Amino acid sequence: MEEPAARRLPALSSDKTKISLIIPALNEAASIGRVLEDLPADLFCQVIVVDNGSTDGIGEIADAHGATVVREERRGYVRAGLKILWTIARLRKARWE
């Protein structure tokens, strides 16, 4: 079965709605494309997939669908959560400078 064409998710929004969706994922390549395609386009200002050491190419699929991909090799929800908090802090600092 042929994979449908990936749609790009909107870039970080400048409107008042500032809700980011964070998806920790480990070897979820079979489903991540459909999950990202089914998200309402105007609900989140950004979608971040934390690739928690996957070996199935999930990061490439999420990127092709417009998600920001952050890779954390050390497995576990705590590690994925810490990685995303560090990434958000770094991104916010860059915006303030």
Note the total helix count: 3
Structural class: alpha/beta
Secondary-structure element series? EHEHEH
Percent helix:
25-40%
Radius of gyration: 14 Å
Distance between the termini: 47 Å
The total tally of domains equals 1
Please summarize the sheet with the most strands: 3 strands, parallel
Global mean pLDDT: 78
Low-confidence stretches: none
The global form is: flat
**Order of adjacent strands in the largest pleated sheet:** 1-2-3
Number of strands: 3
Beta-strand level of the residues, as a percent range? 15-25%
In short:
With 97 residues, the protein is of the alpha/beta class. Helices cover 37% and strands 16% of the residues.
Key attributes of the depicted protein:
alpha/beta, 3-stranded parallel sheet, 97 residues
Walk me through this protein's architecture.
The chain has one domain. Helix 1 (29-37) packs parallel to helix 2 (58-64). It is of the alpha/beta class and 97 residues long. Strand 2, helix 2 (58-64) and strand 3 form a beta-alpha-beta unit. It contains three helices and three strands, in the order βαβαβα.
Topology at a glance:
Blueprint: E1 20-25, H1 29-37, E2 46-51, H2 58-64, E3 68-71, H3 77-96
Parallel strand pairs: 1-2, 2-3
Helix pairs in contact: 1-2
